[in-house]
Amino acid sequence: MKRYLTLLLTMVLVGCGYSSGSLITSKYHTIHVPIWQTQERRRGLEVALTRALVQALEARTRLKVVSTRRAADTVLSGEVVSLQERVLTEDASDNVQEERVILTVNFTWQDTRTNSTILARRGFRVYADAALPLGESELTASNLALYKLAEKIVEELQTQW
Questions:
Q1: Among residues 128, 134, 122, which one has the least CA distance to residue 151?
Q2: How many domains is the chain partitioned into structurally?
Q3: 15 in a domain, yes or no?
Q4: Is 135 left (phi over 0), alpha (psi -120 to 50) or beta?
Q5: Domain-located, residue 136
Q6: Which pLDDT value is given to residue 24?
Q7: Which domain range does residue 110 map to?
Q8: For 94-130, what is each residue's pLDDT tens digit?
Q9: Distance between CA atoms of residues 46 and 79, nearest Å
Q10: pLDDT grade, residue 5 (50/70/90)?
């Protein structure tokens, strides 16, 4: 019976595509993430997104983030094309209670050894809804969207394998 349960559990995990490690090929060990460019005028947006990307890469992959292109097997670069904020709900005093932030980016993941593109996406979009407790700024929703975008980009990198 114990052997049957072990076999069943193994089949379920394999069938669901479960993986305990990074899905990125083992031929890449390091990644450099330069500060992304932005077409938006929001101060610090590109730095916050780059920081979120580094955190997502470190948390969800086995890639080591390095500070220079020369030390990297790969480079993840990109630009913020647009950031849109939409009010979803307001209170009776017109204070924003819930907001949707939509971020659109272009990005390229490049192999530095062969100078070839591993993955490129244009118009990659993600949105995040955030409830804003009284006294919270709309930056809360923007930061949530940045982290959600970073996670989605890392997921895209892993879909290649």
A1: 128
A2: 1
A3: no
A4: left
A5: yes
A6: 74
A7: 22-159
A8: 887 888 889 999 999 999 999 999 999 999 998 888 7
A9: 8
A10: very low
Q: Burial-class residue 6 by CB neighbours within 10 Å (0-12, 13-18, 19+).
A: exposed
**What local confidence, expressed as pLDDT, does residue 8 receive?**
34
- Strand 116-131 relative to strand 96-111, pairing: antiparallel
> How many CA atoms, within 13 angstroms, populate the side-chain half-sphere of residue 153?
33
Q: Convert the pLDDT of each residue in 34-72 to its tens digit.
A: 999 998 888 888 999 999 999 999 999 999 999 999 999
> With 0-12 CB in 10 A as exposed, 13-18 as middle and 19+ as buried, what is 34?
middle
Name the pTM for this structure. Answer: 0.77
Beta bridge partners, 117, equal 110
Residue 118 covered by a domain: yes
- Do the domain assignments include residue 3? no
Q: What are phi and psi of 155, to 5 degrees?
A: -60, -40
Residues 87, 89, 91, CA angle at the centre, nearest 5°?
Answer: 120
Question: Of 27, 117, 128, 44, which Cα lies nearest the Cα of 77?
Answer: 117
Separation between Cα atoms, residue 80 and residue 59, nearest integer Å: 22
CATH number, domain with residue 110:
3.30.160.150
